[in-house]
Every structure is written in C-alpha cells, then in structure tokens.
Amino acid sequence: MAPLKLYHYPMSPPSRCALLTVRNVKVDAEVITVDLFKKDQLAPEFVKINPQHTVPTIDDNGFVLWESRAIATYLASTKAAGSSLYPNDPKKRAIVDARLYLDQALQIATGAIMYPIHAEGATSIPQDKKDKVYKMLGDLNTFMEGHLYAAGNELTVADLALLATISTVHGIGANISKFKNIAAWYKRLEKIPGFQENEEGAQTLGKYMKAKINLTGTWDD
C-alpha cells in the first residue's frame, strides 16, 4: 500500500494541523511541499487533484480530501480508530467537535489580522481585532479549567488543531502567557509528535508578519 500523500505548506496553520495529525496517528506519509508564496497551488497538476487548490490536501490511496479538520477527524478515525484522538463516545466526540468549531472561529479571527498585513499593506493591528482573539482565548482558557487538554483529560484532534492556530497567534504577537491554562497546555504539548515542526512553521510565519508591522514583542508591549 502506497504511503499517504500530504500536500503541505509549513507556514499555513491549517496545513500544520494536518501534519500534526499525521504525526500523532503515526501513519506513513509522503509530505509534499506546495509553496503558496510561489503559487504552486495554482499549478494545473495540483488543481486537478484539488479544484479549490488549497492546503492541506491528502491522497489516501486515491481518496482525496481537503479541509484541515475533516482531514484530522478522518485520519484519527481510520488510522487510530478507538484512540482518544477522536473518541467513539458520542458525548466525548461532541466536545471535541465543539472545540474544533472554536478553533475554526479563532482561525478566522486570526486570518482577519494577517490578511490585511500580508495582502493590503496594513502596518498595525486594530485593537478590536486583538480583542476578538483575546476573547476567544479567554473562553478556551475557561473551558480548560481543571482539564489537561482542550476537550478533557486526553489528547484529541482538537488539541492538534488548536495548537496549529494558537502557535500562529502567539507567533504574530498575542500574549498567551496571561492565559494560565492555555500556557500550561502549550507547555504540556511540547512532548507530542510534530510539536517542533509546527513551532518552526508558526515562528517563520510570525517573523514574516511582525516584520511587516515592525513589531518586536507582544501586542501588549
């Protein structure tokens, strides 16, 4: 059986979610870089695979799928069935899904900060956009009270998705140290497979964004 193919760009938070899942389900994978800055995603051969030309995209022996959270839940269900990553218990799974929706909202709010900087020449971040991100982080911090992970006391795909997003938020300047549960969770995740790969991608993106707005510290400095 051929290895799973993951079409990936390290600076992309959704793509890093998929890579973290690949690493944590411990599936044999060929990671193929699609450089978004070079417009590799528009190459005819990639558009043929994914007409929406987005990363991440996987090819699992002919089954092609994109959208990071769909990939994460698919891989957990098929490559690590019965594990805590995407539990079979309907109530536990519902909490994981709820945290994935929170991650999606946080990622959209983060994108609303990054897109104007990357594509429109913005040189600062409006306070209301910072406040929106901080509100969501505050909610997550509350949800984590008394728990080791985002959806309880076991690692799930929600943690992997949120790690990809929150490492990005941290990289572009958000001060996560004031959220004690998130800060402890982030530290806890240092031991999981793929953490360092994700961190490197997030920091590369963060340095790019912060250089654009001449930011050296956090949003709160």
Task: Identify the notable features of this structure and list them briefly.
four-stranded mixed beta sheet; single chain; 221 residues; alpha+beta; 8 helices
Helix residue percentage = 40-55%
User: Which spans of ≥5 residues are poorly predicted at pLDDT below 50?
Assistant: none
Q: What gyration radius follows from the Cα positions, in whole Å?
A: 17 Å
Q: What is the overall number of helices?
A: 8
How are strands sequenced across the largest beta sheet? 2-1-3-4
Q: Could you give a short account of the major beta sheet?
A: 4 strands, mixed
Strand content: 5-15%
Number of extended strands: 4
> What structural class do you assign from the helix and strand content?
alpha+beta
Shape: globular
Order of helices and strands: EHEHEEHHHHHH
End-to-end span in angstroms?
52 Å
The overall pLDDT average reads 97
